[in-house]
Each structure stands twice: as C-alpha cells, then as structure tokens.
Amino acid sequence: MTQKMNPWHDVSHGENAPETVTGIIEIPKNTRAKYELDKETGMLILDRVIYSSMYYPTNYGFIPQTYCDDQDPLDILVLSQIEIVPMCLVEAKVIGVMQMMDGGEMDDKIIAVAANDMSVAHFNDVAELPEFWKKEMRNFFEDYKKLENKTVDVEDFQGRAKAMEIVEQAIIDYKKKFPKQD
C-alpha cells in the first residue's frame, strides 16, 4: 500500500532553521492566482483568482513543520529574480518579517531570499532591501483584498532576529500541535 505524503508534515523545515529554512512555494511571483495547500491531501488548490488587478510581488509559500495562530503553517515570502514554480522546495535565508493583521488576526510573513540566487543571496537583513521592495510588498498586502471588502493592515517590517524568533516559535508550536507518534 502506498503511503501518501503531505508537504506540510513530511518535509523538514530545514537543518539550519531558523537562519535558513526550507520554503515550499505555493504561488509564484507575478501571478494573480491564489493557490494554497490543501491540508488534507497535500495537493495545491486554486483558492481564487485575486479580485484586484495586482500580482504577487514575491514568491509566496510556507515553511513545513511550523504552526501559527491562524491554524496554518508559517507563511514565507521568498525574494528571487525568477518566478519559482509551485511546490518547489527552496533553500531560503531568513532576513526579516512583515507583521500584519488580516481580518483582525495576526498573520506574520517571513521574508527570505533564495539562498541559491546570487542576485539576492547577499541580503542578510530586511533593512538592506531597497525601500521600493518593502513599499511594494506593503502595498500589495494592504490592497489585494480591498475589492473583497476585507482589511489587511501591515504593521511593520522587523529584522532578521525577530523573524528567527517567530520561526523558532512556529516550530515549537508545530511540535506541540502535532506530537510525533512513535
């Protein structure tokens, strides 16, 4: 009998977490498709085509074996010069976090750079990013749900140290929520 694999539960968050993590991409940058992991099957589902005429400014996904207050794995934005295909595993160097409120719930987005993309791998902290990139990320997340009559408030960008704390806590929370059965 074949055992099914679920990317959230069966892929490691990375040997060097929280400095470098495995990111699993759900949504490539420059698309309007909102894909997300179906928690039961491990497949991607098309949640919706975003209502606004905006495109994801970064590759968007999650860090496996993490858990957050929204009952999902921890979100990650992976900066790269390329559009990374969905379900691709990416070695991602954590450089910061964008903290936001989505529908009244805290929703952290870890910001990372693709470790194997030399056009961005030299960034070590979100403070080093061009100001325009941060404005673009903020603008996208504050505006992309407006036509759905939903509110998202980006609170602030925090540096690498805060992001690593959030990753560590999400790993701890995952282990509490999903204890290993031996």
UniProtKB/TrEMBL annotation:
Q: What is the name attached to this protein's record? A: Inorganic pyrophosphatase
Instruction: Locate the residues binding substrate.
Output: K34, R48, Y60, Y144
**What's the source species' lineage?**
Bacteria, Pseudomonadati, Bacteroidota, Flavobacteriia, Flavobacteriales
UniProt family annotation: Belongs to the PPase family.
So what does this thing catalyse? diphosphate + H2O = 2 phosphate + H(+)
Which SUPFAM superfamilies does the record cross-reference, listed alphabetically?
A: Inorganic pyrophosphatase (SSF50324)
Q: Which Pfam families match?
A: Pyrophosphatase
Which residues are noted in the entry as Mg(2+) 2-binding?
Answer: D75
**What's in the GO CC field?**
cytoplasm
